[in-house]
Description:
0% strand; disordered N terminus
Amino acid sequence: xxxxxxxxxxxxxxxLRAAVEEFQENGFADARMDRISARAEVSKRTVxxxxxxxxxxxxxxxxxxxxxxxxxxxxxxxxxxxxxxxLVDLAWAEGRLLIAPDVxxxxxxxxxxxxxxxxxxxEANNKIDKTSxxxxxxxxxxxxxxxxxDDPEDAAVAFIGLIKAKAFWPVMFGAPIVSAxxxxxxxxxxxxxxxxxxxxxx
Length: 202
């Protein structure tokens, strides 16, 4: 095992990766900081130097996970761009995360806590929920006359669901992570379905 006297990005990431594995395998309640330090190949003192408690470590992982969604948060409807291209960009902002192994690992960790610790899991889910971004895009496109969506939030949930049905939930139950090529097909088909249901004829 190694130690460090100054903050190290590599040590920080080693600990986070090890903690994701530990929480996923044993749950929050049964996770142990000594096992996390062993997995990360750092001393227990180093783990506590970065994270004061197991609770803070779990929440730090959630914060890192949430930060990966910043690209989605920045997407806004642009009336001067073709609608289909914007919907593809929005779907890919979600899809790009779902082909990233570290994102999938963190998602599995959070989902594993849903039954064991519902409050903690709900708090994590609230930080990474992207429905509002999809809702805003569909609402603004409707107000501009590019779509005809009567319930933007419901449509947003359906849009995300089209992507996750093929690229997220099967993976959570053991299927391999989809490739970029497979995700491209999922994105295009999801956008096709949304335009088929809500598109406005030119």
